[in-house]
Design goal:
This protein has 16 helices and three strands. By secondary structure, the chain is mainly alpha-helical. Helix 9 (211-245) runs antiparallel to helix 16.
């Protein structure tokens, strides 16, 4: 019997890898579902060693605008009665991005083999974000796939517009920061050492050097001798940290600290709550049961802590508890939001209220980002000015002390 290597996600949100024996790929997927595992990738073991089906490893993402257009076109095709397989064939052939065309061809093949569309998209996580996969899964669960695809396209366009706005506002501060750092390094590494002889003569006269000059010289000597090693160490540390954060444990720790960052942490938190509320509200509005909706929406948060809290609420709801109680106990949902959810539960309007919460959270995020961007420029000027002032004082104070001594 053939063996299939799989990557699947458990009900607790953990990714598992293994090998399963089955007569076909469709049967392997069914066996995984019986184990309460959601298949992300299923392939015959021979595929890794030169099998007939070659996977295309996409290392770079596809432009958000192209993805949005693709989802819009797929929604239109399905709404007009074109089958999913035929729609994927059309989009793959007409894709303006050659890499996306290859990916769509692979997805079409997976769907033809019995893999669900969301599982096929999840195997290309470098292209399709978790929220995209969750929304497609929601559309399949609630039989509103066309609407879900349209919502994805709208969300991606909104996200791209916000990103371009931030990039445009950050261009000047970024240039200012790069130039300022380079000028500071040049002064410390090149200019300061040229005054070494003058400083040595002052020390021999017994007058000594001011503390700020001693610190400046120590910094200059360190960068001249070990600057290259520091750069290499930082690059290696960045690579190790990136690989570690790709692990479940690393991602959980990173998500925890992201929420604790000043100012930025609030943006990450509001974004996670917004995604959760929007997906959950959309699912409930289209008749998906609450427990299934919670499981799907937990994967769309983008934050492991909130996802775990949502999955814990699934267990308590199964035993007869309300939704608001376990979510409030987690401390990750703001009290005003929890109050709205609690009232909506009692009034049976949870689906509409959750979508409104997501809309307000998105507006709040945009305001916070706008304020952050406006604050960055004066902060950068203050930091660069402080560094340059430190260098100038370190060089000139000994001169002032010498003039005072001569006078």
């Amino acid at each position: 019997m053939p063996e299939f290597a799989y990557t699947a996600r458990s009900a607790q949100g953990q990714d598992e890898n293994g090998v399963i024996s089955a007569a076909s790929k469709r049967e392997a997927i069914a066996l995984l579902a019986e184990r309460a595992l959601f298949p992300l990738q299923v392939r015959t073991t021979g595929q890794e060693n030169g099998g007939t089906k070659v996977r295309f490893a996409l290392r770079r993402g596809v432009k958000t605008e192209v993805l949005a257009d693709t989802f819009t076109q797929l929604s239109d095709l399905l709404a007009n009665g074109v089958s999913l397989l035929e729609s994927l064939d059309i989009l793959a052939a007409q894709s303006v991005d050659a890499r996306l065309g290859v990916i769509l061809t692979q997805i079409r093949g997976d769907v033809a083999d019995g893999v669900s569309l969301d599982a096929a998209l999840a195997t290309h996580h470098a292209v399709f974000p978790d929220l995209t996969v969750s929304m497609v899964r929601a559309g399949l669960e609630g039989a509103f796939l066309e609407e879900a695809l349209g919502r994805i396209a709208s969300f991606l366009r909104k996200q791209e517009a916000l990103r371009m706005k931030v990039i445009g506002s950050m261009t000047y501060p970024a240039i200012l920061g790069i130039v300022g750092v380079n000028v500071t390094i040049f002064l410390v590494v090149v200019i300061v050492p040229s005054f070494q002889g003058f400083f040595d003569r002052l020390e021999r006269t017994g007058s000594g050097l001011p503390l700020i000059t001693v610190l400046l010289l120590a910094t200059s000597h360190f960068l001249v001798r070990y600057g290259v090693f520091v750069l290499v160490a930082l690059a290696a540390l960045a690579v190790v940290a990136r690989k570690w954060m790709a692990t479940p444990r690393g991602r959980a720790v990173a998500d925890k600290w992201k929420l604790k960052l000043p100012v930025v942490g609030d943006v990450f938190h509001d974004a996670a709550v917004s995604r959760f509320c929007r997906v959950l509200g959309t699912l409930l509005r289209n008749g998906v049961p609450l427990l299934s909706s919670l499981r799907i929406s937990s994967e769309s948060t983008g934050n492991r802590l909130l996802a775990d809290a949502i999955m814990q609420s699934v267990e308590t709801i199964s035993s007869g508890d309300s939704l608001s109680r376990p979510l409030a106990a987690s401390g990750l949902i703001p009290p005003p939001v929890m109050a709205m959810i609690s009232v909506a539960e009692q009034a049976n309007t949870l689906d509409d209220v959750l979508v409104r919460i997501a809309d307000r959270a998105d507006e709040k995020i945009e305001r916070k980002l706008d304020v952050m961007v406006r604050l960055i420029e004066p902060i950068m000027l203050l930091i660069i000015g402080s560094m340059v002032l430190f260098i100038i004082l370190g060089i000139l104070l000994p001169v002032f002390d010498l003039n005072s001594a001569i006078g």
